[in-house]
Structures
1.
Amino acid sequence: MIIMKMIKVVQGDITKMKVDAIVNAANTTLRGGGGVDGAIHRAAGPELDIACARFHGCNTGEARITPGFRLPARYVIHTPGPVWHGGNHGESSLLHNSYFNSLQLAEQNQCETVAFPSISTGVYSYPLDAAAQVALTTIKDFLQTSKSVQTVFMVCFDSQTLAAYQQAYQQLGIQ
Ligand code: ADP
């Protein structure tokens, strides 16, 4: 059987995604915040914060997995992306690590479908075009050797984010 792996760039609300795992652009406390983090915690219900508290935080670029509770997604993978400090503070490798470590956790938990938000490009101020390059390159490379992960959605909340990821997608020649 031939299985087609793919990246799909879509516009929408990640809390509505019926996938095996959604990724949360968390902060290092893992105790919820604004933006997509707040939206995920509200939609999942209070059990999510109780589950996250047990980790006692998470370093930037690392990832942790919890159930999805009231979300349509089975799991939430939480990763704090880097705060942008001008680009010379390891931001791109930390952003790569957030995507890579999230995908590895998805793989270890037999996920076939994974959805990401645009990590670090909100309050953390990572430039959108540069972030899109790191995100899509990391996902594309990961899919070359993944066993369970088949389809990865980039869920863009607004049209500017959608345009940046669509452009990066074309530049990378992703089919
Ligand atoms: P960070 O702190 O990592 O920058 P933010 O939550 O501030 O995280 O922003 C990350 C991205 O998530 C932004 O593009 C923001 O518009 C987007 N976002 C906010 N809410 C949602 C949602 N419900 N679904 C998908 N993306 C969202």
2.
Amino acid sequence: KSVAELIAAGEVIERPSSVIKELVENSIDAGARHITVEIKHGGISYMRITDDGCGIAYAQMPTAFLRHATSKIRTGDDLTGIMTMGFRGEALASVAAVAKIEMMSRQDGDELGGRYIIEGGEEKEHESCGCPTGTTIVIKELFYNTPARLKFLKKDISEGNFIAATVDRLALSHPDISFRFIRDNKSVRMTSGDGSLLSAAKAVSGRQFADSLIPVDFSLNGIDVSGYVSSPLFCRNSRSMQTFFVNTRYIKSTTCMAALEEAYRNSMMVGKFPACILNISLSPETVDVNVHPAKTEIRFAYEKPVFDAVYFAVKNALVNAAD
Ligand code: ADP
Ligand code: MG
């Protein structure tokens, strides 16, 4: 691998949780109904993602690991209106450059599937094999060939916690998909995939938290805001439970945070922060998702209408709950 390629890989794949995010997004794009994520040692030694999505045709397996060889090809115009999660055709190539990967996949209707092994960007094996419909990817020894990156990682437990948070966000933004998370041989998370955000929130944050949530469902100027906010009594000591999605993508936005907190201004105890799980749906043209692939910070073409929509959505929900 050339240095340039390894650097490019490092920009998409910062740590184990970036691998999980990219690969689970691929499973979501593949139409999976069930996704299992298994990790060992914070994902550094072992990560497995299994889905029951559409699978990859045997002949397409090598192509999937080529940079920019996305099957989700779009025109320049499409790029501004992105709806699928992945669109750069960079993730698999980037992971493959810095890890050892084994993929097994079968498309519905194919008698046999394929098994593909690629290590440090080099194909090691490609053969037919029997396997269930869908895709399983095992990633071993992340950053084994980039010691500097490996050294930069935190302890297993912190990397594992980043992954857990990533899986939780993906589960909350896709309540219609059943997620299972296995960490060091223990099943630590399971969502039902019944389509209800509240039941996903219960699985992720516990019944006591979920039972205190106030529903939000509001539209302003073509911006829909829906989900849940915490009762003022359940505000937290940090912002770690403020979860925003824009068109089902987890994002960080100071505008959304400010709007949420402004709506609580008079009902919140000093030094406390409201929690939320809010979905903001707006026309994709007004969101710049073509920012750095590993970053979650988002820019809105128009910040003020987003602020207003979130602010009034939350305000309205709090007023209704108080009645
Ligand atoms: P992108 O998602 O941007 O297209 P990726 O590198 O993430 O690029 O994936 C490359 C291609 O591999 C995808 O376009 C898709 O065709 C295929 N692929 C990857 N993961 C899966 C999966 N879990 N199920 C089916 N196809 C997949
Ligand atoms: Mg992708």
